[in-house]
Amino acid sequence: MPFALQYNKLIARETQVAKTKLEPRKVYKIISYEYADGNLTTFTGPKSAIIFVIGITPDKILHCLKISESSPRKFFSWLRLNLKRNLKYETIVENVNSNKFNEIVLDDNRLGTKFFQEVKRNTIYTQQPGTYRTYILKNVKLIKEVTFDTKEMLRLLGIPKPSKTTTKPPEE
Asked: 27: which strand partners?
């Protein structure tokens, strides 16, 4: 069951990006893609191709999770397992707001070797239909970077806003 419509409700903005500017461990939406048989496909609505880029090879192959094939709850639960440890709430918010997603997840190289090993150990990889995809970068005709609504993303990651503790001034 495609979950693209559920993700679309969580998206704050989409920004068209040059293919040469794609970065691993970020979320993108492929708008149009040309398959090997020459068939140009446009992905819209429930058929949207929302991807989390694991890595990019030197020969320009994108290794991704097509997260629109998995529920947002499942994706964000998996993602939470891959957040850097001991991040401050403010750091997470700042990086989510500026779409520096790759700054809050575990460090890895451009190929995403270590990250892929983590992906393979989780049901997000083994679920049916499968979520793992590869895309040839030159065949991506239009792609947009996705920024999720910060509040919704934090909710789905299960990161509560820290409570403010107020102390009363001593009474005289």
From this structure: 52
Query: Is 158 within a domain?
Result: no
In angstroms, the CA 54 to CA 111 distance is: 7
Tell me the residue range of the domain where 33 lies: 4-150
> Which of 71-108 are b and which e, b meaning 16 or more Cβ less than 10 Å from the residue's Cβ?
bbebbbbbbeeeeeeeeeeeebbebbeebebbbbbeeb
Number of H helices, E strands in the chain: 6, 7
170: in domain? no
Tens of pLDDT, residue by residue over 106-134, are 888 888 888 888 888 888 888 888 899 99
- CA dihedral over 114, 115, 117, 121, signed as positive or negative: positive
Q: Tell me the torsion sign for CA atoms 149, 102, 159, 161.
A: negative
Q: Does any domain span residue 123?
A: yes
The total number of structural domains that make up the chain: 1
Query: What distance in Å separates the CA atoms of residue 108 and residue 84, rounded to the nearest whole number?
Result: 11
pTM, rounded to two decimals: 0.87
Structure tokens belonging to residue 130: 């499968």
172 lies in a domain? no
- Name residue 147's amino acid: T
* Cα-Cα-Cα-Cα dihedral sign, residues 81, 136, 146, 72: negative
